Amino acid sequence: MFERYNKVQRAVLETTLHLIIDKELQATSMSLIAKESGVSTGNIYHYFSSKEDIINELYKAIVLFNGEFVTKNLNAADSVQEQFRRAWRSVIELGKNHPKGFRFIEQYSFSPYIYEQSKLEAYKGGWCGPMEKIYRQAIDQGLFVELEPHMMVQMHYGSIVYLLKSHQQNMLELTADVEEQALRSFWNAVSKEKGWNE
């Protein structure tokens, strides 16, 4: 998730993520980050100007990683439905395989700690933009009703979040069959015709 950073930055970001998920943001101080990461406070300040700076870099790093993860297997030559299925399956896989990153984004996307510039950069590098293009294609091809693509993506993502949270709390086993049922329901909810291909 933090491969593009140097060793010191990576240690700080990884430690901060673990601390925030385990102890919450307010309890995560610079001194605690230094202690847990093994990086001196002075060295941290060489790369990050403040705790807020670390949080924003962490946010951007996770969103960029998420975007690459979800879009890496998308192929414009595939049908819209196949792209739709593959993208949402990747979002689910992402949440399962990287639960701390998922929880961080879910908890802090609307936090005042996250600068507007960070949100803008994250939006451009994340997966929401590419997902909206798939929905726009579906509308243009007459497959989906003419609703705002951004709204549809967010509605469906809200359902994914609920499923992943239920899975993480052992309330629901998120099997391939359950995932397929969820994706079929998403498609059919906005489809002009109920045309989900098995």
From TrEMBL:
SUPFAM superfamilies: Homeodomain-like, Tetracyclin repressor-like, C-terminal domain. Keywords: DNA-binding. GO terms for molecular function: DNA binding. It comes from Paenibacillus sacheonensis. Gene3D superfamilies: Tetracycline Repressor, domain 2 (1.10.357.10). Residues 6-66 form the HTH tetR-type domain. It comes from the Bacteria. It holds the Pfam family TetR_N. Residues 29-48 bind DNA. This is TetR family transcriptional regulator. Signal peptide: none annotated. The lineage of its organism: Bacteria, Bacillati, Bacillota, Bacilli, Bacillales. The keyword DNA-binding applies.
